[in-house]
């Protein structure tokens, strides 16, 4: 009897020891897991915050924004034209996003225009609402599928309401438009549609070639990546950029 009791007691003690050991191991595993998750979460969060701190770009100081731009937003009830910005360079009065439209805006005394920038297959920045040529020209397809030479053969007035007055118009380069704007002191909103790197490269060259753009140009886009790419290039300048909102 005594021997049997001792054997049963030892068996129970062994099971208890095994269970206790398993519980200790489980506790150690859970504790290690929680600690690891906390440590990794801390490291990841710290890394993300450090990366944001490194790549963030401070907003432009509003006191340095050109008066040519600010006056567009100063409401003048006696001179409504002073707050007028022609969309697509004034597509209601001439074929949209063409030099004819830009010239018409100047003739009408409009202080500012908005134009749309996209890129051809060979990387030339042209004025077109895009991403396709279907809406305004006598052809079909994506802007990026045409070389600049090919896109110059299209008629940008083909589907325009003013085609009787302007039977033929060509898709111009951004640079040709900017030259007219600078020469005539016309404020220009450049709505960038694609290719952040190409956009930043082109805008950089145009601002370097035409410093007056700092008083006349606003780079805008629905895409934050484009605005970031442009602002990153102009990190220490007062180029005015804005990201539009799509509703």
UniProtKB/TrEMBL annotation:
Limits of the GP-PDE domain: 82-247
Instruction: Name the domain of life this protein comes from.
Output: Eukaryota
The UniProt keyword set, sorted, is: Membrane, Transmembrane, Transmembrane helix
Q: Which GO terms describe its biological process?
A: ethanolamine metabolic process; N-acylethanolamine metabolic process; phospholipid metabolic process
**Membrane-traversing stretches:** 24-55, 216-239
**Which residues belong to the signal peptide in this entry?**
none
Q: Does the keyword section mention Membrane? A: yes
One Gene Ontology molecular-function label: glycerophosphodiester phosphodiesterase activity
Cross-referenced InterPro entries, in alphabetical order?
Answer: GP_PDE_dom, PLC-like_Pdiesterase_TIM-brl
Q: Which PANTHER family does the entry mention?
A: GLYCEROPHOSPHODIESTER PHOSPHODIESTERASE 1
Which named protein is this?
GP-PDE domain-containing protein
Q: Which organism is it from?
A: Biomphalaria glabrata
Gene symbol? Answer: 106052557
